[in-house]
């Protein structure tokens, strides 16, 4: 089936105009250029869908290029995770996998070209001195005392930087532009710095590395990119992007900026996400509470749901915050149509049906998905002793509570009407041990022949046949809509949600889940959507909650 075209936006309108004008010989060529210094998050998914989606819809090309110019923070682990994430989202770069490190020799040559034009110089100033002399928005900067070095001296010093004759911080290569430029990034920016660190691809072949601003536009140019699509924070970098390409006289892609994704109750700063991992606030980059693509995948989200979310939020020029509920709804809508229904009891409470034969068991027909009749039915065993959810019983029920209570009758999903006739309690603690009920054999799988009605249907599992499982109930990681909204002097971690994970080790699920495979997704009736995570040493199945149902009971309970 052909993938539907993404909705139009201002970037597509620019591309339409370029094609109409015959620009780039009718080519459309984009790229996704991640830094391999962390795992991709949901914000990157928006950029991936945008760049690869444009290439798809305009029958163009999209490259995957790693901006690997900082060996201090980069790792092969991140490269592997990024390629896996992009593939999982459903996109393919064919043979166009590139690295900025592929171009180190050519980038060095372009830097020499700028020196020979008198547009770059080697500077001995420290980082602190450069910051001090850069000036402000209202005051011009101060030229470096090394700015007047001759071309010959700069070529010699730059060559010696490459040979490793100087220590980190001793020298940098800077562009020679304008220290009074209104854009502070144009005030003789740094193009190369010394870093005596091993690179994950080039080893110790290099000890000088180009900056992002110097590298990015040149890589775009060499790869024939037509539209260099960036997030809004790079808008101020565009003048430098243009200046470098114009001074070098090479192919000039058009940089276009769009608003990055800001998601409520979520942080999308790689630095802060790394802090959560390193300080063990979460259990790794793929912790299902993390907004990383790996975290969403492990939690049970599908690539289709994330792509749909990215299409729905659209592409804008101004920053805004998207409510997390939009992302949750994207997976709910998909799983409502596709996920098999099963019965699982998270907090078990035993029910004994006094008038049901002790040694009898029967197989009931239960529909797999009412949204899709073609999914058929399954057999679910029913017996005298069952388990229901603790919250489905109240000994002293308040108003608007219609589930099981003393003297009250309810329907068991796809089974019988049962009526509570007694409660057994632990004498020492006073806690309820089990509930005694009777059932009406005439109500199997349907209504009562005498026309009486019940106001609630609850789910259950058979005590003799159910399987033990563990459920991990994931919730928002941060309590505040904007996690960066903290009291003065506090860290963002003060807004972490202490209830972001609740582990229920004694859940019970129906026997049809015995061979459930990791990654398979289900709707637990009346509870939520869950995905199989993995098996522990005891063989117990672990289910991650993907997202809750739209639970009206939560609203009712909060008012009680």
Structure in words:
This protein has 560 residues and is an alpha/beta fold. Strand 26 and strand 27 form a beta hairpin. 37% of the residues are buried. The two termini are 50 Å apart. It is elongated and about 100 Å long. The chain has 13 helices and 27 strands.
Strand order of the largest sheet: 12-25-26-27-23-24-13
* Number of DSSP E strands: 27
CATH class of one domain: Alpha Beta
β-strand amount: 15-25%
Going by CATH, the architecture of one domain would be: 3-Layer(aba) Sandwich
How would you classify the helix and strand content by structural class?
Answer: alpha/beta
CATH topology name of one domain:
Rossmann fold
Determine the N-to-C terminus distance.
50 Å
CATH superfamily of one domain: HUPs
Mean pLDDT: 95
What's the helical proportion of residues?
Answer: 25-40%
How would you characterize the largest beta sheet? Answer: 7 strands, mixed
Over the alpha carbons, how many angstroms does the gyration radius reach? Answer: 31 Å
**Tally of helical runs:** 13
Shape: elongated
Give the low-confidence spans: 551-560
What structural keywords apply?
560 residues, alpha/beta, Ribosomal Protein L25, Chain P, 26% helix, 24% strand, 13 helices, 27 strands, disordered C terminus, Rossmann fold
Write a brief caption for the model.
This protein is 26% helix and 24% strand. It has helices spanning 10-20, 42-57, 76-88, 104-116, 127-133, 151-163, 212-222, 238-248, 270-278, 293-299, 303-313, 324-338, 552-559; strands spanning 29-32, 61-66, 97-99, 120-123, 172-175, 190-194, 208-210, 227-231, 254-258, 262-263, 321-322, 341-342, 344-345, 348-353, 361-367, 377-383, 385-389, 409-412, 417-425, 432-440, 457-458, 461-462, 467-474, 501-509, 521-524, 528-535, 541-548. Strand 26 (528-535) and strand 27 form a beta hairpin.
């Amino acid at each position: 089936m052909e993938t539907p075209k993404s909705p139009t936006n201002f970037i597509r309108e620019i591309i339409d105009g370029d094609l109409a004008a015959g620009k780039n010989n009718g080519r459309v060529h984009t790229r996704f250029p991640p830094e391999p210094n962390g795992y991709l998050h949901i914000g990157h998914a928006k950029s991936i869908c945008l760049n690869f989606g444009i290439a798809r819809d305009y029958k163009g090309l999209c490259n995957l290029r790693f901006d690997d110019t900082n060996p201090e923070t980069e790792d092969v682990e991140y490269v592997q995770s990024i390629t896996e994430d992009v593939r999982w989202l459903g996109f393919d770069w064919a043979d166009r996998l590139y690295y900025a490190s592929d171009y180190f020799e050519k980038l060095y040559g372009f830097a020499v070209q700028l020196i020979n034009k008198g547009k770059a110089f080697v500077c001995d100033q420290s980082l602190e001195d450069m910051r001090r002399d850069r000036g402000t928005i209202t005051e011009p900067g101060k030229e470096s005392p090394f700015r007047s070095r001759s071309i010959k001296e700069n070529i010699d010093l730059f060559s010696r930087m490459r040979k490793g004759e100087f220590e980190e911080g001793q020298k940098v290569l800077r562009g020679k532009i304008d220290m009074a430029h209104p854009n502070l990034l144009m005030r003789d920016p740094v193009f190369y710095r010394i870093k005596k660190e091993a690179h994950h691809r080039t080893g110790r072949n290099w000890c000088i590395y180009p900056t992002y601003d110097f590298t990015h536009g040149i890589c775009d140019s060499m790869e024939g990119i037509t539209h260099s699509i960036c997030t809004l924070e790079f808008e101020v970098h565009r003048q430098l992007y243009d200046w470098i390409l114009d001074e070098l006289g090479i192919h000039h892609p058009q940089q276009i900026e769009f608003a990055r994704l800001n998601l409520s109750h979520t942080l999308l700063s790689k630095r802060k996400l790394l802090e959560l991992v390193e300080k063990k606030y979460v259990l790794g980059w793929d912790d299902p509470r993390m907004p990383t693509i790996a975290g969403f995948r492990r939690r049970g989200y599908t690539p289709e749901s994330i792509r749909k979310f990215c299409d729905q939020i659209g592409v804008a020029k101004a920053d805004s915050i998207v409510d997390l509920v939009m992302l949750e709804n994207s997976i709910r809508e998909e799983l409502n149509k596709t996920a098999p229904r099963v019965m699982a009891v998270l907090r078990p409470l035993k029910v004994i049906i006094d008038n049901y034969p002790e040694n009898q068991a029967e197989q009931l027909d239960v529909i797999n998905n009412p949204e899709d009749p073609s999914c058929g039915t399954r057999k679910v065993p029913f017996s005298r002793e069952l388990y229901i959810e603790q919250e489905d019983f109240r000994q002293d029920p308040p108003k608007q509570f219609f589930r099981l209570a003393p003297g009250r009758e309810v329907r068991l999903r796809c089974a019988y009407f049962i009526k509570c006739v007694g409660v057994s309690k632990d004498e020492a603690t006073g806690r309820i041990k089990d509930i005694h009920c009777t059932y009406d054999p005439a109500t199997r799988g349907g209504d009562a022949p005498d026309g009486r009605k019940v106001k609630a249907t609850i789910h259950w599992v058979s005590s003799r046949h159910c399987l033990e499982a563990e459920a991990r109930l994931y919730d928002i990681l941060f309590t505040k809509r904007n996690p960066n909204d903290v009291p003065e002097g506090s860290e963002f971690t003060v807004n972490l949600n202490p209830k972001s994970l609740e582990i229920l080790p004694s859940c019970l699920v129906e026997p049809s889940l015995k061979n459930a495979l990791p990654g398979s997704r289900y709707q637990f009736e009346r509870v939520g959507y869950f995905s199989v995570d993995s098996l522990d040493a005891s063989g117990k199945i672990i289910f991650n909650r993907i997202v809750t149902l739209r639970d009206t009971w939560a609203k009712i309970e909060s008012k009680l």
